[in-house]
Design a protein that fits this description.
seven-stranded parallel β-sheet; three-stranded mixed β-sheet; globular
Length: 345
């Protein structure tokens, strides 16, 4: 009926593997780009064809894009390098910006490529003051370091601008999705948010912080990425967000899902910044990783209110309740043995 091959980068990652699941559930043909020797490739569904390559190596992308005559391709570019360190990092620029430019060039070089979905980040969108919901924009550069904070967000902004410019100037058929934070089961790499959930459930966070997150179920984000491939308008951006949730609310829901302990008290943001400064100062002397960083506090203190009504309206994007996501994640973590001596509620 349709002879489309979906080309997914970052397929061994948390979101990319769920994008593969979403596509396979629809009966689609899926090909994944995986770094040579990447051990996390074992988490990619076995029905997915794996091609080794590197975003930064143009020659290696040729095999990924080469498909049988008479077929067409749709690219979902999930791969990126993520860091919780706000400092400049050249490798982030090379992978997130340079790698995306290479993907754009390959899409333009291969006329059988029908569309590309670039998975950006809400961090790429210039932040607005608290009380003003953050909506989609079409201008990400020049970088405003006060409103696009940290090297990761800045590289995602530059890459997003490159995609939009290629749509306007070179005829690239692409759209952009901006996921907020990612939550949910099957995070085999144990990212930052999953690591925090494990600490909470293991009683290793006696003190919490004020502030809020904006987190989405990875399965809902995967649906949104595939829906953007189906329905996203060329040259348009779509926020894939959720309602804000405080750390205190998240801990309460985790307790209800698993019976785990919750922090004894929650430090106000102002005090958290002071504690982070002390911990970072101490970490410089000892060489150990600080328990709390200024950037981590900023991510809780910042405006985390995103308007995702455009994605709901145009893509059919939807979010499930935090309670359901946290229950499923808690059950998965317990089943996988990440939680010590924990009884279910």
């Amino acid at each position: 009926m349709k002879n489309i091959i979906y080309l997914v980068t970052g397929a061994a990652g948390f979101l990319g593997s769920h994008v593969c699941d979403e596509l396979l559930a629809r009966g689609e043909r899926v090909r994944a780009l995986v770094l040579p020797g990447d051990k996390s490739a074992k988490y990619i569904p076995k029905e997915v064809e794996i091609v080794e390559g590197n975003l930064c190596d143009v020659a290696s992308l040729e095999n990924f894009f080469s498909i049988p005559k008479g077929s067409s391709s749709v690219v979902i570019h999930c791969a990126s390098m993520v860091t919780t360190n706000a400092e400049f990092n050249q490798k982030l620029v090379d992978v997130n910006v340079g790698g995306t430019v290479n993907m754009i060039d390959q899409c333009l070089k291969h006329p059988e490529c029908r569309k590309m979905v670039y998975v950006s980040s809400t961090g790429a969108i210039p932040e607005l003051p608290k009380g003003s919901p953050i909506r989609e924009t079409d201008r990400f550069t020049p970088i405003d370091e006060e409103r696009q904070v940290g090297c990761y967000s800045q590289t995602k902004a530059m890459a997003t601008q490159a995609v939009l410019d290629a749509c306007k100037e070179k005829g690239l058929k692409a759209c952009v999705v901006h996921p907020s934070g990612i939550l949910g089961p099957k995070d085999y790499a144990i990212g930052e948010t999953t690591g925090t959930v494990i600490k909470i459930m293991n009683g290793e966070m006696p003190v919490g912080m004020g502030g809020s997150f904006n987190l989405c179920d990875v399965r809902d984000l995967a649906y949104g990425c595939v829906a953007a491939a189906d329905k996203g308008r060329i040259g348009e951006c779509y926020i894939l967000g959720n309602k804000e949730v405080t750390l205190k609310e998240m801990c309460r829901m985790l307790h209800e899902a698993s019976g785990c302990r919750t922090p004894h008290f929650y430090v106000p943001i102002g005090m958290a910044y002071k504690l982070a400064a002390q911990m970072e100062k101490k970490a410089k002397k000892t060489g150990e990783k600080p328990l709390m960083t200024n950037f981590a506090v900023y991510n809780l203190a910042r405006n985390n209110e995103f308007d995702y009504s455009k994605a709901e309206r145009e893509l059919g994007y939807h979010t499930r309740p935090y309670e359901e996501t946290l229950r499923d994640e808690a059950n998965w973590l317990m089943a996988e043995g990440y939680i010590k001596n924990q009884k279910t509620a």
